[in-house]
Amino acid sequence: MAGYNLEAIEAAPLKEDVDIVIPTIRSLDFLEQWRPFLKHYHLIIVQDGDPSINIRVPEGYDYELYNRNDINRILGPRANCISYKDGGCRCFGFMVSKKKYIYTIDDDCFVAKDPSGKEINVIAQHIKNLETPSTPHYFNTLYDPFRDGTDFVRGYPFSLREGVTTAISHGLWLNIPDYDAPTQLVKPRERNIRYVDAVMTIPKGVLYPMCGMNLAFNRELIGPAMYFGLMGEGQPISRYDDMWAGWAAKVVCDHLGFGVKTGLPYVWHSKASNPFVNLKKEHKGLHWQEDMVPFFQNLRLSKESDTAAKCYMELSNMTKEKLTEVDPYFEKLADAMVAWIEAWEELNPPVDGKDVKAK
Ligand SMILES: O=c1ccn([C@@H]2O[C@H](COP(=O)(O)OP(=O)(O)O[C@H]3OC[C@H](O)[C@H](O)[C@H]3O)[C@@H](O)[C@H]2O)c(=O)[nH]1
Ligand SMILES: [Mn+2]
């Protein structure tokens, strides 16, 4: 066993080090059910849509709430880099947080139960995932060797068993799976009932479709790369916010030597958004992903990019250079990526000049 004292993680692990970021355009009543697990944590609510609408936050939670007026006031002209009328607005919450860890969840996700019927403490599992190393250089066939009751299997080189620091923990969803509109349309009644008791490291050099529904990450290591793009009203694309962030953050993690895990914990995703509306929002993404994925697969970041922010600025140049031929939108996105980093650095100046550098 790799000797990590995971039992020390109590019911509200690292409560001073975690902010919960929630994008919402509807209601926060779902927080009633989460109270046993989230009541000790500080919430950062990003209210999308009409800022004159009052969003009620259930009693007893410690929170800060930002609407569009707040985003415009705080970021000034750079506010244009934050999506409007798209869940991607959540990344504003990542930027204003001062905590080491972020957990972000959609407002239609509820507490799931494991096969024994026990309610799942998503924060505890995400923190375990983030507090234990990843193994991106060599696949462990018995999955996460740092979980209780498992280990590295025979043939796993000891020189690789230290693993690397984990930057992202990607959780999954029971009930409504995160399908794209075409799949939703042909399989409207499909529900995910399969609980897979596994956490896996996504190998180095391999991308994955990151979903923002149940996601945690180390803000100090990878925060600047977790920009959820420029989507929603006024943009030709929506619902690819988390995909863009996931591809960018993974190439940055690979470059800086950090790991990404996927699997446990599960949430119960309750609402199926309208597939016809989704098709309209994401149809360009269905085409463009055939170019975006190879773009991220083939790019190489330079040695000089030794922090997430520097990597992201380099990615912005590459986006402008390579993807604008796909559509002029990517030039606007590349500029928004620069505005995001400038805003991030203005709100989060490196502490005594130190920024987290590559391992
Ligand atoms: O204009 C909007 C639309 C939604 N939100 C908030 O974003 C969260 C996700 O919204 P929703 O549950 O309606 O969409 P899904 O299709 O289930 O979500 C997936 O696809 C879109 C995103 O990438 C999301 O992360 C995926 O899980 C929810 O909290 C809405 O209130 C918004 O802020 N603005
Ligand atoms: Mn949803």
TrEMBL record:
GO cellular component: cytosol; Golgi apparatus
EC number: 5.4.99.30
Subcellular location per the Swiss-Prot or TrEMBL entry: Cytoplasm, Cytosol; Golgi apparatus
Chief location: cytoplasm
Catalytic reaction equation(s): UDP-beta-L-arabinofuranose = UDP-beta-L-arabinopyranose
Site (Required for activity): 154, 161
InterPro entries noted in UniProt: Nucleotide-diphossugar_trans, RGP, RGP_fam
Glycosylation sites: 154
EC top class named in words: isomerase
GO annotation, biological process: cell wall organization; plant-type cell wall organization or biogenesis; UDP-L-arabinose metabolic process
Keyword line: Cell wall biogenesis/degradation, Glycoprotein, Golgi apparatus, Isomerase
GO MF entries: UDP-arabinopyranose mutase activity
Entry's family note: Belongs to the RGP family.
Function according to Swiss-Prot or TrEMBL: Probable UDP-L-arabinose mutase involved in the biosynthesis of cell wall non-cellulosic polysaccharides.
Name of this chain's protein: UDP-arabinopyranose mutase
Organism: Brassica campestris (Field mustard)
